[in-house]
Every structure is written in C-alpha cells, then in structure tokens.
Amino acid sequence: MGRAPCCDKASVKRGPWSPEEDELLRSYVRSHGAVGNWIALPQKAGLNRCGKSCRLRWLNYLRPDIKHGGYTEQEDMVICSLYNSIGSRWSIIASKLPGRTDNDVKNYWNTKLKKKAGGATIATPPPAPQSQCASYMQPSPASASSAVTTASGDAGSFGAMYSPSHQAAPLGHYNVNTAAPLAEFSAMPTPAAANS
DNA sequence: AATGCTCCCAACCGCAACTAT
DNA sequence: CATAGTTGCGGTTGGGAGCAT
C-alpha cells in the first residue's frame, strides 16, 4: 500500500510557528476537546499548516501540561535506565515522565545525556553506556530489585519487559497503560546517593 | 568589537502501524 | 481480505543563542 501524502507541501506554511498560529491551534483544541482528525484540523481551525505539523506543535509545545527544561536527576535516571532497557523508544520513555514529550526527551538525550553516558556514538552503539549515566542503567541486583519491585504489579521490571529478545520484536503501539508511573523510580537511589 | 564555533531546540521528513471502508 | 487514509514514531536538520578566540 502506498503512503498517502499528509498534505500538499507546496500550499501549506512551514517553519516556525507564529504566536497567532499557536493561539488559533490552542483555542481550537480548547473548544473542541480531543482532536479526532488532525488532517482536517488546519482547515477547521483556519490554519495554513499541515495537519501533521499541527499535531506535532500541539503535542510538543502547546499542550498545557508540557514542561520544558529543568530535568531533574531523577528524570535523568529514568531516561538512562529506560534507554538501557528498551533503546530509543522515546515515546515510551516520555510516557514515564509526566509533562515530557518524546521529542523533548530525545533532544535531551542527544544533547546532554548521551555525553553523560560516555559519548555513545553511532559507530559503536552501546549496549550499556558508561560513566555516570551507566550507573543508572545497570543497577546492582540489590538496588534493582528494591527499586523495581516496589512498583505495584504489572509494570515491575523494564529489564524483564524489554529483554533483548523483546527488543528484537517490534513493540508496535505500546500500551502506556501498562507502563509503570514515574513514582516507581522514586524508590531508586539518587545519583548523588549512588555516587557517594 | 568582530568573527567563528558549538550547542540546543523546534520542526520536518519518511516510514511503519493502525483503523476504517 | 484488500486498500486507502490517518496517526504515531524515530531520525535528522536548520537556525538562533551563547561562548570562545
């Protein structure tokens, strides 16, 4: 099956969003609630944008619960740990961090944590990045069990959920409802504590 | 003060998966 | 069941801001 073009690129605006466009999109979503059809949204909202672009803008920037920057050590730890377990499944990782988006997490990893992790490079995809970040990723059996088993029920261990054999298989659309909340990681030692 | 370099973030692109008909 | 349309995802890039020389 061929890929349907998402929009006529020649006739829609691209590039940075203006405050007016943001407001149009924001007010449309506010007044209509959940967007059922992003392709049709630009027309209805009076935006000369690709529906895909509108969706991205809303999800990554305009959503009211979005947090920008100010990553905590705990969030670092979650990202590193999950990256180690499941790789670059940014949407899954972001789902564990309330207020964070996959794009945001991805950017944060690429610009900050990858360096922390010891300069993971494309040339040598690291099974387990080194240094500070690595300490989040491969918790000792004792700390790991105390950390993940404190989670109630189904979403206990990412290591188990996303073992290499699982990684090999496509995850498809991951059901975030089965994912453990961030609070699961609150039981994990802080990097400061781990380092001391 | 001017120029060049590096870093960071927002946005785009293309593909795969999912859903409706 | 097959096809078309839509959504979601991950990789990549362009441009601005800040820093160093």
UniProtKB/TrEMBL annotation:
Gene Ontology terms, MF aspect: DNA binding
Transmembrane segments: none
InterPro entries reported for this sequence: Homeodomain-like_sf, Myb_dom, SANT/Myb
UniProt superkingdom: Eukaryota
Residue intervals of the Myb-like domain: 9-62, 63-113
Alphabetic keyword roster: DNA-binding, Nucleus, Repeat, Transcription, Transcription regulation
Protein name in UniProt: Transcription factor RAX2
